[in-house]
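Take a record.
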Amino acid sequence: MLTVGQLARIFNVSAKTLRHYDAVGLFTPVKVGEENQYRFYSPEQLPELRRILFLRSMGLSIEIIRELKRNGTLGDAEKLKPILLGHADGIRDEIERQQKLLAAVQRMVDYISITGGTNMEPKLVKKAAFTVVGMEWNNKSSEGGIPQLWDRFVPREDEIQGKLQPDISYGVCIPGSNGDFSYIAGYETTGEHIPNGMMTFAVPEQTYAVFTHTGSLSRLGETMELIYSKWLPLHSLEPSQGMDLEVYDERFTGPEDEQTQIDLYIPVKP
């Protein structure tokens, strides 16, 4: 027979925990001394206690484990296996959630570091008017967002004829009224041929401050925030009403690549 103290030593658990398990009917001794009320356990009970302690370490409540014991699942490996697998799925989901939270915290740390000292020097460019042929999305659309527009456009980009710069594609942001805006994914062309489902748009001549975004496009908004809140004012540049341009050339190596680069053309007053 084994005492509470011996079990506590074997499983590195407190005697208080074992007494609590007894009190709630989760793990009870086979014998209690009549005179001293000492609890005694049999060696055959050790596997059961090991499973109880393991399930508790996995976050399962005493109530759930007690129910598993009551219906015979605790001692049946085949019945216990799907429960553990389901719990493993829950742990993986929680790990993924925590990893996303960690990444968000790290992005904020990076953002604070950038706003604390880094400055990006813009290049001023006066770009002549040009014509873009491509596919359009607006913020009232039910067809996803801008990434989904590119997913639809890229497989069809070879349909566009008369490209003037075949290695450079554009994202044209067109402001509307009441906060609405449209976005065109396309190429600069002669505008003579418009594939079915696409449209043509004339981008007027504008003066731009050009900044380079490096890294995943998921952080493009952070770069845009820095442009308007810090870098333009720092260089005494005032944004003007016009069309922002995203310019994708050979430096663009994928939307999630941390080494990818695109140029952001921000309209400014001359």
Summary: Residues 108 and 227 are 17 Å apart (CA to CA). Helices lie at 4-11, 15-23, 46-57, 62-70, 77-117, 146-153, 220-234. The mean pLDDT is 89.
